[in-house]
């Protein structure tokens, strides 16, 4: 009887080890960095009341702003869309799987752009950094081991006060009337 209990314990433990090994392989397969790429950047509020350096390089991060990525497949049809909200530092990070429904995605066929901003005092999208029209992914900013990352830089929203073209105050910098 003792030998039977002992044998059942060994078999039980072996099953646990096999299942754990299969689970780890499944986790490893879903986190394989060669199967995806990362896209990140930052969203800030651009204030026109300061000097050029403060306006161009400064800005406070916006939490909760949404940024999207749209990718086309080889036939130029919509293959992937996702969006991400920025954290308290204004940063976003989206992960894109390279094969969707059997179709290969080329990062160069993806565009990242501003979607929305919860900050009522600074919610007018600008094209400073091409956030309004969108940035096409070009060269990865990081290629380390199997990980590929694209940094699209900074996107900016501005205040209604700053959204006036000094040469023609009936049009904004974004081309709206």
From TrEMBL:
Q: Which domain of life is it from?
A: Eukaryota
Signal sequence range: 1-29
Name assigned to this protein: Pistil-specific extensin-like protein
One Pfam family assigned to this protein is Pollen_Ole_e_1
Gene behind the chain: LOC110699442
Could you name the Gene Ontology cellular component terms for this entry? cell periphery
* Keyword flag Cell membrane: no
Keyword terms: Signal
Protein species of origin: Chenopodium quinoa (Quinoa)
């Amino acid at each position: 009887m003792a030998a039977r209990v002992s044998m059942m314990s060994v078999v039980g433990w072996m099953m646990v080890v096999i299942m754990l090994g299969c689970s780890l392989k499944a986790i490893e397969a879903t986190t394989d960095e060669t199967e995806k790429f990362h896209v990140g950047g930052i969203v800030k509020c651009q204030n026109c009341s300061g000097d050029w350096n403060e306006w161009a390089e400064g800005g406070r991060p916006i939490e909760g702003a949404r940024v999207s990525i749209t990718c086309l497949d080889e036939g130029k049809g919509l293959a992937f869309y996702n969006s991400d909200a920025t954290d308290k530092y204004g940063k976003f990070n989206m992960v894109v799987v390279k094969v969707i429904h059997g179709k290969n995605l080329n990062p160069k066929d993806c565009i990242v752009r501003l979607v929305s901003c919860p900050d009522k005092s600074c919610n007018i999208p600008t094209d400073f950094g091409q956030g309004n029209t969108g940035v096409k992914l070009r060269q990865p900013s990081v290629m380390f081991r199997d990980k590929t990352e694209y940094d699209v830089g900074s996107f900016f929203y501005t205040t209604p006060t700053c959204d006036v073209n000094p040469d023609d105050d009936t049009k904004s910098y974004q081309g709206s009337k």
